[in-house]
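Subject: for your reference before the review

Hello V.,

The reviewers asked for a structural picture of the protein, and I figured it would be easier to keep everything in one thread rather than splitting it across files. Below is the amino acid sequence we used in the manuscript, unchanged from the supplementary table.
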Amino acid sequence: MAVLVTGATGLVGRHLVDEVDGRVLAASRSKKHLGNSSSVEGVLLDLADEKTIQRLPWSSIDTVIHLAAYTEPRRSVEEPHKCFTTNACGTSALLTAAHDANVSEFLYLSSYWVFESGVTGELDESTPIGVETPYGASKLAAEAQCDAFRTQSEMMVTTLRPFNVYGPGARPHQVVPEFVSQATDAGIIEPHPGNPTRDFLYVEDLVDAIIACMKAKTDDVFNLGRGKGTSIRKLASEVADTVERLTDREVVTRFSGPIESSDKKIADIRKIRSRVGWTPKTDLSTGLEKLISRFL
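And here is what came back from the structure prediction:
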């Protein structure tokens, strides 16, 4: 039997496929070979095309790790239907196919964007839900379908809500790679006005959490983060210091807007720590050094 990993070319997928024991079906829209192991096989999957879901070799799949998604919250305002079709409808079709094929375990990667934007501080799994973007709506709808299958079927369905994930392979619109690119290209980091606090999780720690949930046979909802907040100003300074140390070139940070940290969104990870035994291992400075070294 095999583990199906969707979104295998994305930030998390490319780090995950070599860490899963046994045969892995690495699903993406390009069907290119992924991973360094002979047990990893590329398969075609487009969440917006249900026929590609139906054509998957379901008789040989025992576990689904669903990472594939439309991943740009701000751009989703311009492409709401495309975002919803991929994230909500695609996840529903994948859940249905997995259920019909008697798949035993389904892990879905959601997002902290499902929480109410006005709620700040440490957010646990009971934090009020509320969305303001088509992206958040699509992820919340997919979560609701996961909840339904968890309740109405024997398939174990786990929903993971990572906070800000970063690492080699991250998309350039995300804040960490944006700062790294600014620092290495022009030697100047210019954060947007404001100083929100976010929880930054290194991709390898997220992969460890997924593997831990698989081994523990979870059937629940978990927040994922480091459990520690970093302001955007502090992040910019950390990136600048790391690039300066690794390149011996000066990096300037140009801040505007308020100095005080605001809008704190930090993952409360006590639930997954107690239920699964997972704890993140990579602090921010170590993660940034790994990322920037690879980038350079």
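For the response letter, the relevant points are probably these. The domain at 175-198+229-295 is CATH 3.90.25.10 (UDP-galactose 4-epimerase; domain 1). Residues 183 and 243 are 7 Å apart (CA to CA).

Happy to draft the paragraph if you're swamped.

O.
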